[in-house]
């Protein structure tokens, strides 16, 4: 009898150990979040322990019901009941912290057995008999119920996670918006003139719409075109004056630092050129060449973004048409009032007169040079007078052909008088 009891006990212990190992492996394999979900890992460990206790206790309870439980089994059952109660209490604690409750698990059948008063009968049955098989079947059913509840809990968690992520995303958006608002406020505090430039612009519009409105607002800052470059910071802090470079860089700074629009570049024409752009919409000087008919620039600057031109000086989206000079540095000539000039690609000579510029067709300019060179052979004593007359002609208007013709007649008259005088002498 004793030997039979020991054999049966050994068989029960071995079966329990194997089933426990399989259960643990099953839980860890099918529920990897039990290992990786850090915020609720403690609750998951308690769930696992509870399932182990419940599995073992269910078998012992069924054995007790049919009078096949051993004395050692009864003692083990008492210990398991205590541990299950402790696990349930611990589960309530985790429920308040993480929203998980062991008490909600589908263990009603097992609980109904636990709640009943078990009167064990120390009858020893054969290993593998019908009672043992029933115990295994019921225990398997309980474990399946437990697994189903765990799976449902995990599904609920997965359903909740997107919501949590959405809330986190919204929080991050709100934080980013607040940071952006603070940054814009600081920008306007530092650059007072920027308030006029950003006035009325909805920063939720597409970037091209924002840039177009910002571009137009440069017409509202009472800018004075002085043809002298100043920094964009000086302009934005309240001194709206400077040149095309000042305007282009101010446009770039506001677009990038206030509106957050990237990849704006400041482009330029580096060589001197003539332009037919006409008057600017800003305060300041009229076109500086040929009495307000055209401009002569040493260089020119504008902003561009995504292939679009923002010429802030002329408030134009077109690239400036330029008659480029053939050289960067001016040429020298005794015919020019300031003894320097530029020759353009379209056949004009640009020369300075005081603080403005004038032009003459290159054909007329070449005729004058040739004429002076020829006359120099005969009137070397009068060369300075001839040059003064030519300079006077340019100062009046280099394109005045009647003045040129008058000069020719005067020089011819002087030549004839000189010839007559020489003949009389001889």
Spatial order of the strands forming the largest sheet = 2-1-5
Uncertain spans:
1-11, 33-37, 100-125
Helicity range: 55-70%
CA gyration radius, whole angstroms? 50 Å
Write a structural description.
With 426 residues, the chain is mainly alpha-helical. Helix content is 57%, strand content 10%. It has 13 helices and twelve strands. The strands form four sheets. The protein has a three-stranded parallel β-sheet with strand order 2-1-5, covered by helices on one side. It has a three-stranded antiparallel β-sheet with strand order 3-7-8, with helices on one face. α3 packs antiparallel against α6. The protein is rod-shaped and about 165 Å long. Residues 1-11, 33-37 and 100-125 have low confidence and may be disordered.
List the helices and strands and how they pair.
Elements: H1 2-30, H2 33-36, H3 41-65, H4 71-98, H5 108-115, H6 130-190, H7 194-198, H8 207-217, E1 224-225, H9 232-236, E2 241-242, H10 244-257, E3 265-269, E4 273-275, E5 283-284, E6 295-297, E7 300-305, E8 308-310, E9 322-324, E10 342-343, E11 348-353, E12 356-361, H11 362-375, H12 383-397, H13 401-425
Parallel strand pairs: 1-2, 1-5
Antiparallel strand pairs: 3-7, 4-6, 4-9, 7-8, 10-11, 11-12
Helix pairs in contact: 1-3, 3-4, 3-6, 12-13
């Amino acid at each position: 009898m004793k030997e039979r009891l020991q054999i049966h006990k050994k068989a029960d212990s071995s079966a329990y150990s194997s089933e426990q190992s399989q259960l643990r492996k099953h839980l860890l394999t099918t529920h990897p979040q039990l290992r990786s979900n850090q915020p609720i890992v403690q609750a998951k460990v308690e769930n696992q322990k509870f399932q182990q206790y419940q599995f073992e206790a269910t078998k012992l309870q069924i054995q007790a019901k049919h009078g096949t439980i051993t004395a050692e089994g009864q003692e083990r059952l008492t210990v398991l009941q205590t541990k299950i109660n402790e696990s349930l209490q611990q589960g309530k604690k985790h429920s308040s912290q993480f929203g998980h409750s062991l008490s909600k698990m589908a263990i009603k059948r097992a609980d109904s057995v636990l709640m009943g008063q078990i009167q064990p009968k120390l009858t020893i049955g054969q290993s593998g008999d019908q009672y043992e098989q029933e115990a295994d079947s019921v225990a398997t059913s309980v474990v399946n119920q437990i697994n189903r509840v765990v799976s449902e809990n995990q599904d609920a968690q997965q359903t909740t996670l997107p919501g949590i992520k959405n809330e986190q995303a919204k929080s991050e958006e709100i934080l980013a918006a607040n940071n952006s608002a603070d940054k814009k406020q600081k920008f306007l505090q530092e650059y007072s003139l920027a308030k006029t430039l950003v006035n009325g612009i909805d920063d939720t519009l597409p970037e091209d719409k924002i840039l177009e409105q910002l571009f137009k607002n440069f017409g509202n800052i009472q800018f004075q075109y002085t043809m002298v470059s100043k920094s964009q910071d000086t302009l934005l802090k309240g001194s709206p004056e400077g040149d095309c470079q000042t305007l282009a860089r101010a446009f770039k700074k506001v677009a990038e630092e206030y509106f957050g629009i990237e990849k704006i570049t400041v482009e330029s024409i580096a060589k001197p050129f003539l332009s037919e752009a006409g008057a600017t919409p800003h305060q300041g000087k009229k076109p500086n060449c040929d009495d307000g008919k055209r401009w002569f620039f040493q260089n020119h600057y504008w902003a561009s973004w995504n292939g679009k031109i923002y010429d802030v000086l002329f408030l134009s989206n077109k690239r400036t048409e330029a008659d480029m000079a053939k050289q960067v540095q001016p040429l020298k000539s005794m015919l020019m009032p300031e003894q320097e000039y530029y020759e353009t690609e379209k056949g004009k000579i640009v020369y300075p007169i005081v603080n403005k510029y004038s032009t003459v067709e290159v054909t007329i300019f070449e005729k004058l040079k040739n004429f002076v060179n020829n006359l120099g052979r005969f009137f070397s004593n009068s060369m300075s007078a001839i040059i003064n007359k030519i300079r006077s002609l340019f100062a009046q208007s280099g394109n005045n052909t009647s003045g040129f013709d008058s000069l020719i007649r005067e020089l011819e008259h002087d030549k004839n008088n000189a010839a007559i005088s020489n003949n009389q002498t001889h």
